[in-house]
């Protein structure tokens, strides 16, 4: 092999290597080799805190009931478009979407009848997403035999981040 051909093949090999390295850097987000230089996406992977609360409720057999949950960010601003999952006594009863920070779980009178007369734990969980951490709150649904006593109001539980 002549020296001209050898030089040309080495140049091609070097060019090909540089192309591969450039493509790898573009795909992986390389920005340089300086020790204090960071990729532009670093720091933005930090998840923001979420806070969820759920009201307690009191209902009677043969009565439907609605239970409300509120989802906010760590600064108290209402979140929108997020999905939460509802549980009663540890069993999932469905999911609902948060609108302007609020979502509801509506239970039919038939469902309440199937629960029976007693206190039931209500839990709502936001599993988090690419921007927010998960959070969970618990409260109670009290089912009685006859109507809800006058002056009884719902209360909110405290939330815990998961």
Summary, kept brief:
The chain has 162 residues and is of the alpha+beta class. It contains 2 helices and 9 strands; from the N terminus they run H-E-E-E-E-E-E-H-E-E-E.
How would you sum up this structure, described in words?
It contains 2 helices and 9 strands, in the order αββββββαβββ. Strands 2, 4, 5, 7, 8 and 9 form a 6-stranded mixed sheet that branches. Strands 1-3-6 form a 3-stranded antiparallel sheet. It has helices at residues 3-28, 109-115, and strands at 50-54, 57-60, 65-73, 83-88, 91-97, 102-107, 118-126, 135-144, 159-161. The model is unreliable at 15-19, 21-43 and 153-161 (pLDDT under 50). It folds into 2 domains: 1-46, no CATH class; 50-161, Sandwich (Immunoglobulin-like), CATH 2.60.40.10. It has 162 residues and is an alpha+beta fold. The longest helix has 26 residues, at 3-28.
Q: How many structurally independent domains? A: 2
Q: Could you spell the SSE succession in H and E letters? A: HEEEEEEHEEE
- By DSSP (H or I, 4+ residues per run), the number of helices equals 2
The main sheet comes to: 6 strands, mixed
The CATH architecture of the largest domain is Sandwich
Q: From the helix content, strand content and strand pairing, which structural class follows?
A: alpha+beta
Flag low-confidence runs: 15-19, 21-43, 153-161
Rounded to the nearest angstrom, the radius of gyration is 28 Å
**Which topology of the largest domain does CATH recognise?**
Immunoglobulin-like
The CATH homologous superfamily of the largest domain corresponds to: Immunoglobulins
User: How would you describe the shape?
Assistant: elongated
User: End-to-end distance, in Å?
Assistant: 67 Å
Number of strands: 9
Average pLDDT, rounded to a whole number, is: 77
Percent range of helical residues: 10-25%
Under the CATH scheme, which class of the largest domain?
A: Mainly Beta
The fraction of residues assigned to DSSP E strands is: 35-45%
């Amino acid at each position: 092999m002549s020296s001209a051909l050898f030089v040309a093949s080495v140049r091609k090999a070097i060019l090909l290597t540089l192309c591969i390295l450039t493509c790898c850097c573009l795909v992986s987000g390389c920005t340089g080799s300086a020790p204090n230089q960071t990729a532009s996406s670093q720091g933005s992977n930090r998840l923001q805190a979420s806070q969820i609360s759920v009201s307690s409720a009191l209902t009677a057999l043969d009565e439907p009931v609605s239970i409300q949950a509120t989802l906010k960010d760590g600064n108290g601003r209402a979140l929108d478009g997020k999905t939460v999952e509802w549980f009663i006594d540890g069993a999932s009863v469905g999911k609902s979407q948060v609108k302007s920070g609020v979502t509801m779980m509506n239970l039919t009178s038939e469902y309440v009848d199937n629960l029976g007369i007693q206190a039931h734990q209500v839990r709502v969980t936001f599993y988090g997403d690419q921007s927010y951490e998960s959070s969970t709150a618990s409260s109670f649904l009290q089912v009685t035999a006859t109507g809800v006593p006058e002056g009884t109001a719902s209360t909110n539980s405290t939330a815990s981040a998961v």
